[in-house]
Design a protein that fits this description.
A hairpin with a 6-residue loop joins strand 2 and strand 3. The chain has a three-stranded antiparallel sheet. With 820 residues, the protein is mainly alpha-helical.
């Protein structure tokens, strides 16, 4: 205070620090601070805890260990950023070798370090015994507590005395008022509350929890509602004294409320706690003992479906089946229908829910509203799990008829959305969009976020497959917003994956990585996200990082039940794309095994088969396997004008080139150029330019070389802008090779290609187009195209003139390459 009076006009900063908890109103510093506040140059700042972003750095500085994001979050939550508390906790974790473990394996039950106990103890020791006593009771109530509840538990203390004790605690900054909540308070730090709790013996703490629970029951009366979680907590802690009945009652209620608020992780914990209290195993075949146990199992199954991820949905179905068994055996049809009709997304090619729905349909009249609800769900099960498109559409028609007859708009719209999904997996993209858009409108109007997320997902990807990138991106972003509110792991990971794909097709690798990392944080073993990230890293030349994601993908595939599932189809395609980028066939055996899982099954949906076939097509191209290329060309003849991570027209062009049909390949590449340019799929456009240039250079017809050089220039420009280093290097090398190689004359007169020379030879010996098709093992339509091209090139009016031309130029005696 003296110095401040002497510093007027001086370029000096005077900095002082103090602990506000040590400065009471009668402390000398209080008067000094009041006088200093009159100075214009005085500024006071209250220092809080460290921000979350610096916690990781502090852990690494103190311990030398780089922590996981989960550990950083756990330490921050435990210490609230208090630097001293954090440092001591980190040291204790280091001593216990817990920093390298998952936080749930040790941090939650970690005792407070002695150094922290001593600091907090010094502050508690300044309290009167009565104040410490009421704060101890408050600490058992929770981090936050209410004056009324504290008063009911402090029977020997008058209201006036209690207010004085609260004021004493406020003066020491151990507690603070909660703004805007009247008589509500909270402990200034969670470790203060924990320290007070741990000063109690276990017996006293348990009994106090029982008293608190009973008191709250009386206070809340017959409508515990939003207080169910609070009651469940106290009766859980009071278990040895209070018994299981109240615990089960309130964990069931709290779990249902958590599900309603999309707090699925919390719900999972409540239902597990309730089942444990009833001595019923969480996983296993043990049937529900009563209606209460069945309700807990139904809740647990729904929470599991939202939290366990795609690979473990069979666990949720098994839990739901246990609940269903009880309801079916006790003839509780209403609850049995609720269980079987639960809106869990079936898995493509993985039969896990069909049995439940089949059994439920046997319990209800065939044209009843319950039957309509079950038939609606069966649309997805038949169409996705069993690959039965016709059966799915019949179920859709029956469910829709019931919905219209009963005026059930929600059922009608839900069925429409499910039919849209099945259309997508059967590559009926226009039907997907038409039905899905109607479902989206209804879902938005009714605030049905689950229906909205699902419908936007398939509509967006269908539009993406058709090259409508703007519409696809719109639905991807809107679907992500809805999924974030929904807080369902499956749909949130799916929405992030969908947005990642939009970014990949644009070539925005940074955005793609961001969506991918967020998705993997939600679902770390999601094969969809691992596969797309693997390709992204290889596209930009990060081969080592891409290999790491490949290894994670292979590990995750081991957890997937064998069958015609998207996981295997995606692996077959994406690993083959990587092989095409790198030119290495080292990992193709993994793709082949994945493809076999799909091809050998009878119930694969068309889209899953398409992805697998594109993967097999790339393998044939890489290996130069003509017979395999012919097989896949025939299988993929409807892929034109679509995109399955690879343009359908580009894959057809590569196959035609491998077979030796250069003109046909050029036509496909032209279509791919048009598709990619309109869709603005620039990475795919860059690859198409490169591959088309290769075909033109191989065909070497008049004008081909110049066109190829132009395509290579475009490929180099795009791949440079998009940082696609492997393609940039490949296109540049091909350009340099072409520039340094003199143009050569065509091998056959008239600019005929090898295939055209083969065909004119057969024309000359009197073969019909069908006979030529059979001899050369190519499509009749392809022969027709070649004949037309030949007549144009040699200026022949008909087949007779073509035969004469062949004899005059010695083409009748040529030996086809395959015979040579």
């Amino acid at each position: 205070e003296f110095l401040v009076g002497q510093l007027s006009g001086a370029n000096i900063l005077l900095l002082g620090t103090y602990r506000d908890i040590e400065v009471s109103p009668d402390h000398p510093l209080s008067n000094t601070l009041a006088r200093l506040a009159r100075s214009d140059s005085y500024f006071r700042a209250e220092l809080g805890g460290l921000e979350r972003e610096y916690v990781s750095q502090l852990i690494e500085n103190v311990s030398g260990v780089k922590p996981s994001p989960e550990m950083v979050q756990a330490v921050y939550r435990h210490t609230e950023g208090n630097p001293f508390f954090m440092t001591e906790i980190i040291r204790l974790l280091g001593e216990r070798r817990l920093l390298v473990r998952e936080p749930d394996e040790g941090l939650g039950e970690l005792e407070i370090p002695q150094s922290v106990l001593e600091v907090i103890g010094q502050r508690l020791n300044r309290l009167s015994s009565n104040c410490e006593s009421i704060l101890t009771t408050a600490a058992v109530i929770g981090r936050e507590f209410n004056f009324q509840v504290l008063g009911l538990l402090s029977e020997d203390t008058s209201e006036t005395q209690l207010l004085e004790l609260i004021d004493e605690a406020l003066d020491t900054h151990l507690i603070q008022e909660i703004p805007g909540q009247g008589d509500a308070y909270q402990f200034s730090h969670a470790l203060v509350q924990q320290t007070l709790r741990e000063r109690l013996s276990t017996s006293r703490r348990v009994r106090l929890h029982a008293r608190i629970g009973d008191t709250l029951e009386i206070l809340y009366g017959d409508q515990p509602g939003e207080h169910a979680a609070e009651l469940a907590h106290h009766f859980s802690e009071a278990g040895p004294v209070a018994g299981a009945d109240k615990l089960v009652k309130y964990t069931l209620l709290a779990g249902e409320r958590a599900l309603g608020a999309y707090a699925h992780e919390d719900a999972l914990g409540y239902f597990v706690r309730g089942l444990t209290a009833k001595n019923l195993e969480v996983e296993g075949p043990t049937p529900a003992s009563d209606a209460e146990a069945a309700a807990l199992l139904f809740g647990l199954g729904r929470a599991q479906a939202a939290t366990l991820g795609r690979q473990n949905l069979d666990v949720a179905v098994a839990t739901l089946s246990r609940a269903f068994d009880f309801y079916a055996e006790t003839h509780d049809v209403a609850h049995a229908v609720s269980v079987a009709g639960f809106a869990m997304q079936p898995m493509v090619g993985r039969r896990i829910a069909e049995n439940l729905l089949t059994r439920a349909l046997d319990l209800v009249p065939p044209d009843s509203p319950d039957a309509g609800r079950l038939l609606s769900r069966n649309v997805l099960v038949l169409g996705l799990e069993e690959g039965d498109y016709q059966g799915a559409m019949e179920a859709s028609e029956r469910a829709t008829a019931i919905a219209k007859r009963t005026g059930d708009l929600a059922l009608e719209v839900g069925t429409l959305a499910f039919a849209s999904t099945v259309d997508f997996w059967n590559m009926r993209y226009h039907d997907t969009v038409n039905k899905g858009l109607r479902a989206i409108d209804a879902a938005v109007q009714s605030s049905n976020q689950l229906l909205e997320v699902s419908a936007r997902m398939w509509v967006g990807i269908a539009q993406q497959s058709m090259g409508k990138s703007n519409e696809a991106k719109h639905h991807a972003l809107a679907g992500l917003s809805a999924a974030e509110s929904l807080r369902d792991r499956f749909w949130l990971a799916t929405a992030l994956w969908q947005n990642e794909m939009c970014s990949i097709f644009e070539g925005d690798w940074n955005a793609a990585r961001d969506f991918n990392e967020r998705g993997l944080a939600v679902s770390p073993s999601d094969t969809r996200l691992l596969a797309t990230r693997m390709v992204t890293e290889h596209q930009v030349g990060n081969e080592l990082v891409g290999q790491q994601y490949l290894e994670r993908l292979v590990e995750s595939l081991r957890q997937v039940t064998p069958g015609p599932q998207y996981d295997y189809a995606s692996a077959a395609l994406m690993i083959s794309i990587v092989a095409r980028i790198t030119g290495s066939e080292d990992q193709l055996h993994i793709a082949e095994r994945a493809a076999e899982m799909v091809i050998s099954a009878e119930s694969a949906t068309p889209l899953v088969s398409r992805f697998t076939r594109v993967g097999l097509a790339l393998m044939a191209v890489l290996r130069g396997d003509v017979e395999a290329a012919k097989e896949q060309y025939a299988e993929l003849n409807t892929a034109s004008g679509t995109n399955s991570h690879v343009s359908g027209d580009r894959i057809l062009g590569l196959l035609a080139q491998t077979i030796g049909e250069q003109d046909q390949a050029a036509a496909h590449f032209e279509d791919s150029l048009a598709f990619c340019r309109e869709a603005k799929y620039n990475p795919e456009l860059a690859w198409t330019c490169h591959d088309y240039a290769g075909t033109l250079l191989q065909r070497n017809r008049s004008g081909d070389r110049a066109r190829a050089m132009g395509l290579l220039e475009e490929s180099i420009s795009l791949s440079s802008d998009l940082n696609m280093r492997p393609l940039l290097e490949r296109a540049t090398a091909l350009q340099e090779k072409t520039e340094s190689t003199p143009a050569r004359a065509p091998a056959y007169p008239g600019g005929l290609t090898q295939r055209e020379a083969d065909i004119i030879r057969l024309i000359a010996v009197g073969k019909t187009d069908r006979e030529i098709s059979e001899e050369l093992i190519i499509a009749l339509r392809t022969v027709n195209t070649h004949v037309s091209n030949i007549l144009n090139k040699i200026s022949a009016a008909n087949r007779a003139e073509a035969a004469s031309y062949a004899n005059q130029h010695g083409l009748v005696t040529i030996v086809p390459e395959d015979e040579a």
